[in-house]
Amino acid sequence: MQSTSKGFTLIELLVSLSVLAIVVSIAAPSFKQQIKNNKSITLVDEFVSALNFARVEAVKRAHRVSLCPSADGISCAGNDDWSKGWIAFVDLADSDEDVPPKLDLVKHPILRYWKMGTAGTQVTLPAAEKIFAEEKVKSGVELTVPAVTAINFIRFTSLGTLAQVSNNSSITFFVNVDGCSGFNKGVVMVGVAGLISTAYVDCI
Questions:
Q1: How far apart are the C-alpha atoms of 109 and 67, rounded to whole Å?
Q2: pLDDT tens digits, 113-144
Q3: Helices and strands in the chain, H and E counts
Q4: What distance in Å separates the CA atoms of residue 202 and residue 182, rounded to the nearest whole number?
Q5: Residue 159: which region, alpha, beta or left (left: phi > 0; alpha: psi -120 to 50)?
Protein backbone atom coordinates (compact mmCIF):
# COMPACT_ATOMS: atom_id res chain seq x y z
CA MET A 1 0.00 0.00 0.00
CA GLN A 2 1.42 3.34 -1.04
CA SER A 3 1.72 6.00 1.69
CA THR A 4 1.41 9.71 1.05
CA SER A 5 2.96 12.50 3.11
CA LYS A 6 0.93 15.53 4.09
CA GLY A 7 2.36 19.04 4.22
CA PHE A 8 2.61 22.41 2.50
CA THR A 9 3.89 22.79 -0.99
CA LEU A 10 6.33 25.63 -1.66
CA ILE A 11 3.62 27.64 -3.40
CA GLU A 12 1.18 27.16 -0.50
CA LEU A 13 3.88 28.25 1.97
CA LEU A 14 4.67 31.39 -0.03
CA VAL A 15 0.97 32.28 -0.27
CA SER A 16 0.52 31.77 3.49
CA LEU A 17 3.53 33.97 4.27
CA SER A 18 2.24 36.67 1.93
CA VAL A 19 -1.18 36.67 3.62
CA LEU A 20 0.50 36.80 7.06
CA ALA A 21 2.66 39.74 5.97
CA ILE A 22 -0.43 41.65 4.80
CA VAL A 23 -2.30 40.98 8.05
CA VAL A 24 0.69 42.08 10.14
CA SER A 25 1.17 45.26 8.10
CA ILE A 26 -2.48 46.17 8.71
CA ALA A 27 -2.54 45.27 12.41
CA ALA A 28 0.85 46.69 13.47
CA PRO A 29 -0.02 50.42 13.26
CA SER A 30 -3.23 49.85 15.20
CA PHE A 31 -1.35 47.86 17.85
CA LYS A 32 1.30 50.58 18.21
CA GLN A 33 -1.43 53.19 18.59
CA GLN A 34 -3.13 51.16 21.30
CA ILE A 35 0.16 50.94 23.19
CA LYS A 36 0.49 54.74 23.10
CA ASN A 37 -3.07 55.17 24.31
CA ASN A 38 -2.51 52.73 27.18
CA LYS A 39 0.69 54.55 28.17
CA SER A 40 -1.20 57.84 28.16
CA ILE A 41 -3.90 56.51 30.50
CA THR A 42 -1.24 54.98 32.76
CA LEU A 43 0.55 58.34 32.93
CA VAL A 44 -2.68 60.07 33.98
CA ASP A 45 -3.24 57.46 36.69
CA GLU A 46 0.34 57.86 37.95
CA PHE A 47 0.06 61.63 38.17
CA VAL A 48 -3.29 61.55 39.95
CA SER A 49 -1.84 58.96 42.34
CA ALA A 50 1.08 61.29 43.08
CA LEU A 51 -1.24 64.22 43.81
CA ASN A 52 -3.42 62.12 46.10
CA PHE A 53 -0.34 60.79 47.88
CA ALA A 54 0.96 64.32 48.55
CA ARG A 55 -2.42 65.45 49.84
CA VAL A 56 -2.85 62.46 52.16
CA GLU A 57 0.67 62.90 53.52
CA ALA A 58 0.00 66.59 54.23
CA VAL A 59 -3.05 65.69 56.33
CA LYS A 60 -1.37 62.73 58.01
CA ARG A 61 1.69 64.76 58.98
CA ALA A 62 -0.25 67.97 59.74
CA HIS A 63 2.35 69.75 57.63
CA ARG A 64 2.68 71.22 54.16
CA VAL A 65 3.62 68.68 51.50
CA SER A 66 4.49 69.61 47.94
CA LEU A 67 4.95 67.93 44.59
CA CYS A 68 7.46 69.26 42.05
CA PRO A 69 9.15 68.10 38.84
CA SER A 70 12.46 66.36 39.44
CA ALA A 71 15.07 64.73 37.24
CA ASP A 72 17.24 63.31 40.02
CA GLY A 73 14.72 62.28 42.66
CA ILE A 74 16.23 64.45 45.40
CA SER A 75 15.59 68.03 44.31
CA CYS A 76 13.08 70.17 42.44
CA ALA A 77 14.03 70.86 38.84
CA GLY A 78 13.20 74.55 39.28
CA ASN A 79 11.18 74.58 36.06
CA ASP A 80 7.84 73.29 34.79
CA ASP A 81 9.27 70.28 32.95
CA TRP A 82 7.44 67.35 34.54
CA SER A 83 8.42 64.90 31.77
CA LYS A 84 11.29 63.27 33.70
CA GLY A 85 9.37 62.66 36.91
CA TRP A 86 8.37 64.29 40.17
CA ILE A 87 8.91 64.10 43.93
CA ALA A 88 6.69 64.52 46.99
CA PHE A 89 8.33 66.07 50.04
CA VAL A 90 7.65 67.83 53.34
CA ASP A 91 7.65 71.53 52.47
CA LEU A 92 9.29 73.76 55.09
CA ALA A 93 8.06 77.00 53.52
CA ASP A 94 7.29 79.79 55.99
CA SER A 95 3.73 80.18 54.70
CA ASP A 96 1.24 78.54 52.37
CA GLU A 97 1.97 81.16 49.70
CA ASP A 98 5.77 81.16 50.09
CA VAL A 99 7.79 80.65 46.89
CA PRO A 100 9.83 78.58 46.19
CA PRO A 101 9.15 75.45 48.24
CA LYS A 102 11.79 74.47 50.81
CA LEU A 103 13.35 71.03 51.16
CA ASP A 104 15.56 69.82 53.97
CA LEU A 105 16.70 66.28 53.21
CA VAL A 106 18.41 65.94 56.59
CA LYS A 107 15.23 66.58 58.56
CA HIS A 108 12.78 65.21 56.01
CA PRO A 109 13.91 62.75 53.32
CA ILE A 110 11.98 62.69 50.05
CA LEU A 111 8.66 60.98 50.64
CA ARG A 112 8.44 59.42 47.19
CA TYR A 113 9.92 59.73 43.71
CA TRP A 114 8.07 58.96 40.50
CA LYS A 115 10.58 58.45 37.70
CA MET A 116 9.20 58.84 34.22
CA GLY A 117 10.88 56.89 31.43
CA THR A 118 8.19 57.04 28.76
CA ALA A 119 9.23 59.07 25.73
CA GLY A 120 6.79 61.85 24.92
CA THR A 121 5.56 62.33 28.50
CA GLN A 122 3.51 65.54 28.68
CA VAL A 123 2.40 67.14 31.95
CA THR A 124 1.69 70.79 31.24
CA LEU A 125 -0.22 73.79 32.57
CA PRO A 126 -2.66 75.76 30.39
CA ALA A 127 -1.14 79.19 29.72
CA ALA A 128 -4.49 80.44 28.37
CA GLU A 129 -8.12 79.47 28.89
CA LYS A 130 -9.12 76.54 26.71
CA ILE A 131 -12.62 75.35 25.87
CA PHE A 132 -13.24 71.76 24.78
CA ALA A 133 -16.46 71.32 22.80
CA GLU A 134 -18.75 68.51 23.97
CA GLU A 135 -17.70 66.22 21.11
CA LYS A 136 -14.08 66.56 22.25
CA VAL A 137 -14.85 65.44 25.82
CA LYS A 138 -15.41 61.81 26.76
CA SER A 139 -18.31 62.70 29.06
CA GLY A 140 -20.02 64.62 26.25
CA VAL A 141 -20.17 67.80 28.33
CA GLU A 142 -18.36 70.99 27.26
CA LEU A 143 -15.29 71.63 29.40
CA THR A 144 -13.70 75.01 30.16
CA VAL A 145 -10.14 74.94 31.48
CA PRO A 146 -8.98 78.23 33.06
CA ALA A 147 -5.48 79.58 32.54
CA VAL A 148 -2.95 78.82 35.26
CA THR A 149 -0.24 81.24 36.32
CA ALA A 150 3.09 79.51 35.71
CA ILE A 151 4.25 77.49 38.73
CA ASN A 152 6.80 74.71 39.09
CA PHE A 153 5.30 72.95 42.09
CA ILE A 154 1.98 72.23 43.76
CA ARG A 155 1.53 72.50 47.54
CA PHE A 156 -1.03 71.01 49.89
CA THR A 157 -1.62 72.55 53.30
CA SER A 158 -1.81 70.63 56.57
CA LEU A 159 -5.60 70.54 56.08
CA GLY A 160 -5.27 68.94 52.67
CA THR A 161 -6.38 72.07 50.85
CA LEU A 162 -4.60 73.57 47.86
CA ALA A 163 -2.16 76.34 48.79
CA GLN A 164 -3.01 79.31 46.61
CA VAL A 165 0.40 80.08 45.10
CA SER A 166 0.80 82.81 42.48
CA ASN A 167 -2.91 83.73 42.75
CA ASN A 168 -4.07 80.33 41.48
CA SER A 169 -7.29 79.37 43.26
CA SER A 170 -7.21 76.05 41.41
CA ILE A 171 -4.70 74.26 39.21
CA THR A 172 -5.26 72.20 36.07
CA PHE A 173 -2.78 69.95 34.28
CA PHE A 174 -2.94 68.43 30.82
CA VAL A 175 -1.50 64.91 31.01
CA ASN A 176 -0.85 62.64 28.04
CA VAL A 177 1.73 60.84 25.93
CA ASP A 178 2.64 62.31 22.55
CA GLY A 179 0.87 60.59 19.70
CA CYS A 180 -2.12 59.31 21.66
CA SER A 181 -5.52 59.31 19.99
CA GLY A 182 -9.15 59.32 21.07
CA PHE A 183 -10.23 60.27 24.60
CA ASN A 184 -6.91 59.41 26.23
CA LYS A 185 -5.66 62.85 27.27
CA GLY A 186 -6.26 63.64 30.93
CA VAL A 187 -7.35 67.00 32.29
CA VAL A 188 -6.40 66.75 35.96
CA MET A 189 -7.92 69.45 38.17
CA VAL A 190 -7.03 70.30 41.77
CA GLY A 191 -9.67 72.49 43.42
CA VAL A 192 -9.25 74.96 46.25
CA ALA A 193 -10.40 72.29 48.74
CA GLY A 194 -7.65 70.00 47.47
CA LEU A 195 -10.06 67.61 45.79
CA ILE A 196 -8.66 66.05 42.61
CA SER A 197 -10.81 65.28 39.57
CA THR A 198 -10.03 63.98 36.09
CA ALA A 199 -11.72 64.46 32.75
CA TYR A 200 -10.69 62.88 29.46
CA VAL A 201 -10.55 64.78 26.20
CA ASP A 202 -9.54 64.05 22.63
CA CYS A 203 -5.78 63.85 22.19
CA ILE A 204 -6.01 65.78 18.91
A1: 14
A2: 999 877 799 999 999 999 999 999 999 999 99
A3: 1, 10
A4: 5
A5: alpha
